[in-house]
Model the fold of this input.
Amino acid sequence: MEIINGNLKSFKERRFPEKICFKPIGVIHSPFKSLKGIPIQPTMSKTSGMIEIFAEYQDGLKDLEGFSYIYCLYVFDMVKLPVPLLSKPFLQNELKGVFSIRTPFRPNPIGLSLLEISEINKNVIKVNNIDVLDKTPVLDIKPYVPQFDFRETDKIGWLKNKIRDKIS
Amino acid sequence: MEIINGNLKSFKERRFPEKICFKPIGVIHSPFKSLKGIPIQPTMSKTSGMIEIFAEYQDGLKDLEGFSYIYCLYVFDMVKLPVPLLSKPFLQNELKGVFSIRTPFRPNPIGLSLLEISEINKNVIKVNNIDVLDKTPVLDIKPYVPQFDFRETDKIGWLKNKIRDKIS
Done:
């Protein structure tokens, strides 16, 4: 969090927010028009899709074509709140805490997908491995940088020996 | 996005949202009480901090202690909107598109930090490498799983040859 240069609130104005609102910056276009058959993770997808960034934000895409991968943050907008705090992960039969699983049914249903850039044309990012429902609202795009974003670990909790490599 | 089982809206009700609101699920406690000296990335931090998950969400932390790392999603709540779509990344002098840099000054100022779990006590996650301002509102916690979250690439755009390993 590097935050010194820029337009900031003062600490005097700072109040812990009861709620925080965001405006979508774009929309995902994917072949997944219904909820069946959507891959569980981008690593399990070989399906192309597009992230349309709304024209007013297009300038923010400058320099992004130099990166292989992006984090795309989006909203699981089909999820009804509230959600249970314990739920069953995909293909598992035991209840897990919602913050230890990657289910869309989260108290704040924000999705995080690590997607490979295929090409960028004007305000559209074409990606190679989409795992998101068509017409999903996009909140943010960040470049993926292994030097910041990779940690080596085999401590992956209940997922140990449960990860399928199969493309679903 | 695995979304079949759970409480869902119908496609008939689905409207593209003008804005989306979230309630913080917790708050970050860190030694960084002002905006000076906050590390640029968790990889550049050796400072411990705590994520307090509000009591009503505590059950969601079940099973998380089995993981080494978490993604913490939070709000850069000191940032005033709107932000410029081109801005200068840390220690650089050229304007870059906001979606190709990791600045807090984003159209939707959502932060993503990959943090190492030190211990979990009740509703508090102690982490080893905090890079976030004290009293920052937390939106979500997800387990980090290298099999889902690592991509090998040296295509890191304008950051090529510019990454400092130094702890700041």
